[in-house]
Specification:
- This protein is an alpha+beta fold.
- It has one domain (about 40-220): Lysozyme, CATH 1.10.530.
- About 40% of the residues lie in helices and about 10% in strands.
- The protein has helices at about 45-55, 80-90, 100-110, 130-135, 160-180, 190-195, 205-220; strands at about 10-20, 30-35, 45, 150.
- Strands 1-2 form a two-stranded antiparallel ribbon.
- α2 crosses α5 (about 160-180) and α5 packs across α6.
- The longest helix is centred in the last third of the chain and has 23 residues, at about 160-180.
- The chain starts with 10 loop residues before the first strand and ends with a helix.
Length: about 220
Amino acid sequence: MAKMNRKKITAVREHPLHVPVSKKNPTGITIRDRHLRRLKGTYLDAAEIESVFKDYDHKGIVYPATGKLKQKNADKYDENIAVWTDYFNKKFNAAPPLDPDVVKALIESESDFRLDPRKDGKAFGITQVTPKTLKILQDLEGEAKEFIFNKIRQKDLKNPNIAIAMGIRWLFRKRATAMSQLKRAPDHEELILEYKGLLNSSSEYKAKALKKYRNAYGKIKN
């Protein structure tokens, strides 16, 4: 289970906003709704994602296994997987740490390493982030508020570096929700089912989705 860092302090700000003079606002000035200003280190935006990846210290980071999967581009994103798995393992003081092989097998099961495999608008990018998940991961007061993303659009998820970072962040959130349901730490298969929204599902698709992940994970670990 991941241990969360102490909650970061945020500052509340207000801004004056000029509006038409009216009976309600005779001065022509009102106060813009308050919003939270995130402290550095508690969020990532697109520019910061690229900067962190470019400047990341690779010493000691663990890469997923290579040469095990046959899909086109199967090993192309190993550095992205290694960096962001290490980044969030450290961010959340994960014990035990998330295995980058699990992330790689998840990506195979979600997209076969294709950057934009679906055209129906139900999920986006190499890690198949849904619109609902994208919204949660950017909600200042939502369930993932301890560490969020900022100003990431659906089309940005076609960038594998952004999609992998967000997918791994969501895996950590799903580890917490799975533990809450199971009353114990989930194993890697249970974690993947929770990521896919299938942990408590009785649908036929559950077995099919798990089989695809299990096959990929088995090949990577062989």
